Amino acid sequence: MLATERRELICKIVNEKKRVRVSELSRRLHTTEATVRRDLSELQNEKKVLRTHGGAVSVSFKADKKKEQRQDEKRRAYRAMAEAVYSFLREGDTLLLDGSESVLELCGLLKTGKKRGITVVTNSFQVVESLKDGDLVLIHVGGNVNSSSCISVGTIAENVIRSLRVNKAIFSVQGVEPRYGCSVLDFAEASMKHVMMESAEQVFVLAEHSSFSSEYLAKVTDSLEGVDYLITDCHTPKLDYTPYSKKVKLVTAL
Q1: How far apart are the first and last CA of the chain?
Q2: Residue 196: which residues within 8 A CB-CB, separation 6 or more?
Q3: Per-residue pLDDT, 65
Q4: Using an 8 Å Cβ cutoff, are 228 and 204 in contact?
Q5: CB 48 within 8 A of CB 39
Q6: How far apart are CA 5 and CA 116, in angstroms?
Q7: In a 10 Å sphere around its CB, with 0-12 CB exposed, 13-18 middle and 19+ buried, how is residue 90 labelled?
Q8: What is the Cα–Cα distance from 176 to 250, expressed in whole angstroms?
Q9: pTM score over 0.90
Q10: C-alpha span between 142 and 74 (Å, rounded)
């Protein structure tokens, strides 16, 4: 077998298995481990595989691992913010919830936690799915269905929420800026969140650290007006949080 053919085969094996040891390649190719190591070094120089101690991994494997790590970090952030919000809840609370990832984490705490007598009002079908067998009162507001985000929006949904008075509204935003306010990507969602704020005694806004100093076209509220608690996962280095903490109660979950 020519060296080029052997290296092509090594590439194929590594890409199929994602991770492989030198000893295994040596057995499969009927060649010495020293030859395999030289081939792996050449393939790494060509950026076709990545060398590891005792073997190699595919280039996509490293990218997938980084993606998994980012997803794990996101989940930890969502969970931490959900736990921070849950600490403010009281038995018998009525809650308005959106369908964001951090709120879905909160749903898990509502199901397993010890706080009883809670009523949840939501425009999110995912929240309904999560809480449908929970020990609480669950109300979906109806309205026009946005299938891409699994929520309902529009006049019907907003009118139902306007007819209610709840203890706490809890939702997430994509952008938070002390002068511009809270903002999201979608106008219909921004309108829904604004109505939620008007119908609640207390407003809890959840925003990842990357959302701070960000502005989006669809504004939920001006200058953080009406927001009682702004909950984030962690602080962004070099960002001055003083303008935020002067306007709202800023809670850092991690």
Answers
A1: 56
A2: 96, 98, 161, 169, 171, 203
A3: 66
A4: yes
A5: no
A6: 67
A7: exposed
A8: 12
A9: no
A10: 29
